[in-house]
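Deliverable D4.2, example record:
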Amino acid sequence: MEHFEVIKIVSDGAWFSQLSIDEIERVADRASLVLFDKKEFLYHSGETRRNLYCVIRGTVQLSLVDGEGSQFILGSMKEGHWFGEGSVVGAMPLLEIQAVTPCEILSIPFDEVEAVVNCHTFYKNMLADHLHKVQLIYKLLAGMLFLPLRARLAARFLFLVDSFGYATPEGVELNMKLSQQDFAKMSMGSRQRVNKIFREWQASNIYEKRRGKYLVKDLEALRAQISSKEES
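Output generated by the structure prediction step:
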């Protein structure tokens, strides 16, 4: 990757807005590109990290994992997303992050960033971005606590379609290959119950599966499922 490309990636990041071009160039000087294979972990829960990261190419998945290996998928990040802000306070990450596809990740040691930027502006930008992420997590947790499975599943499906979908003449195709086991981990339901709901949605022409990807043919009907009181 050319140095000017790294400078643009850093300058486009919300954390680095309002910093001087000299500061941005010094941050870019300290960046390195790291490659991850599909399903490779960037880090596991509890591992100490002092780096900031940006997804350059590919998609990574964020999950909570308990001591017995049970997994709850919080969401995914694609090109342009920054993460690793816990390194600012030396906190061990509570999440594990895994490459869903082959990924290129920009990595910057936080100690070196701290040494070359206006810390007040940088911390303010990072805090605003972090609070936005926290609000999304609160909304997600509220859905997990108070909505029945069908509504939870529809909400997670719509969020993915809004984030990773693209329009086609037949509807909106989700540009990710996900199994129904993945959806079960996102919605805190069993694979069997999730499979049953998906079969009903397919029979109602809400979606269909093509080449391993999900094509949503009726967004309004899917959105209406969020108001459903049915558990499955």
